[in-house]
Amino acid sequence: MKLSDEAIKSALNFIKYRPRSTKEIYDKLKSKSFDNKTIEETISFLTKNSFLDDREFAKLWVNERLFSKNLSLAKIKGELRAKGIAEDIIQEILSNIEVDELENAFNFLLQKFSKVIDKKTLDKEKMLRKLISKGFSYKTSEKAVNKFLEKF
């Protein structure tokens, strides 16, 4: 097995669990001590054979994080940057998404706090901090918390 075959095998093994960005593949191969030339060849092979596509990765990431995790667009944008997605791809993907941040924040609270038995123990400040840590603005977080507390 040639060194590049080992790199390809390692990258494909990494991809099989979930889609990955180019940067994630690069970092993984670098951590396994592959040289830059081998990493570049591997990334080129994966891209040519449709195993690696940052635009498609970004679309999948946004949908999963927005609709399953109920994160804010600001938080998702930061995650995509950390995954090495180019700014133009981020802007393109996010500009095609219409989302009600208040509804998303409210859904996050439902997901996180609806199982609390004694609703009197809910801490408004804790809920606000949680939403803000997920990238929601203070104003949106406050509205969502008030809406949540009114319902329960």
Distance between the termini: 61 Å
Which blocks of ≥5 consecutive residues have pLDDT under 50? Answer: none
What form results from the Cα inertia axes? elongated
- Mean pLDDT, as a whole number? 93
Beta-strand percent range: under 5%
Percent of residues in helices: over 70%
The computed structural class is mainly alpha
- SSE run: HHHHHHHHH
Number of helices: 9
Specify the biggest β-sheet. Answer: none
State Rg.
Answer: 20 Å
Condensed summary:
Helices cover 70% and strands 0% of the residues. The protein contains nine helices and no strands. The model has no long low-confidence stretch (mean pLDDT 93).
Describe the structure.
- The protein has helices at 3-15, 22-31, 36-48, 54-68, 73-82, 87-95, 101-113, 124-133, 138-151.
- The mean pLDDT is 93.
- 70% of the residues lie in helices and 0% in strands.
- The relative contact order is 0.11.
- It folds into three domains: 3-48, Arc Repressor Mutant, subunit A; 54-95; 101-151, no CATH class.
- The termini are far apart.
- It is mostly helical and 152 residues long.
What are its keywords?
single chain, mainly alpha, 152 residues, Arc Repressor Mutant, subunit A
